[in-house]
């Protein structure tokens, strides 16, 4: 009877060892597959963000290349003691807001107001 129990215990030990090794292999494969999926999502997200940024950079660069906007900006830079209250009352800021409002349909909210 004790030899039978020893054989059963040994058999259960071997089965447990095989099961543990098998589960470790499965876990490693799952982690690798999930890592590859996350890498793919990261790559796609980076490419999308880069494309979005380049589109907005192009729009912004074309908008600020406007000579009228540049003149008004230069006028704002020349305002003495340029506090928020002083700048808010200038005709240059009003002209910039009017100029940008004409582009609001195309560019949306540029974060200026």
How would you describe what is shown here?
This protein folds into 2 domains: about 1-65; about 65-113. The protein is an all-alpha fold and about 110 residues long. The model has no long low-confidence stretch (mean pLDDT about 85). It is rod-shaped, with a radius of gyration of 34 Å. The protein is about 85% helix and about 0% strand. The chain contains 5 helices and no strands.
In short:
The protein is an all-alpha fold. The protein contains five helices and no strands.
Strand and helix layout:
Blueprint: H1 2-64, H2 67-77, H3 84-88, H4 91-101, H5 104-107
Helix pairs in contact: 2-4
What's the N-to-C terminus distance? 89 Å
- Say how many strands there are: 0
Number of helices in the DSSP assignment: 5
**Topology pattern, helix = H, strand = E:** HHHHH
β-sheet strand percentage = under 5%
Helix/strand/pairing class, anyone? mainly alpha
Major sheet characteristics: none
What helical percentage do the residues reach? over 70%
Rg from Cα: 34 Å
Provide the low-confidence segments as ranges.
Answer: none
Count of the domains: 2
Mean pLDDT: 87
Overall morphology: rod-shaped
What are the defining features of this structure?
rod-shaped; mainly alpha; 113 residues
């Amino acid at each position: 009877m004790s030899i039978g129990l020893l054989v059963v215990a040994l058999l259960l030990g071997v089965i447990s060892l095989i099961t543990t090794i098998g589960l470790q292999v499965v876990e490693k494969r799952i982690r690798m597959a999930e890592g590859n999926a996350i890498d793919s999502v990261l790559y796609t997200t980076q490419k999308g963000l880069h494309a979005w940024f380049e589109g907005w950079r192009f729009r912004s660069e074309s908008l600020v290349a406007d000579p009228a906007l540049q003149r008004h900006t230069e006028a704002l830079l020349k305002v003495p003691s340029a506090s928020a209250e002083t700048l808010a009352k200038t005709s240059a800021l009003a002209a910039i807001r009017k100029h940008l409002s004409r582009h609001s349909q195309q560019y949306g909210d540029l974060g200026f107001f």
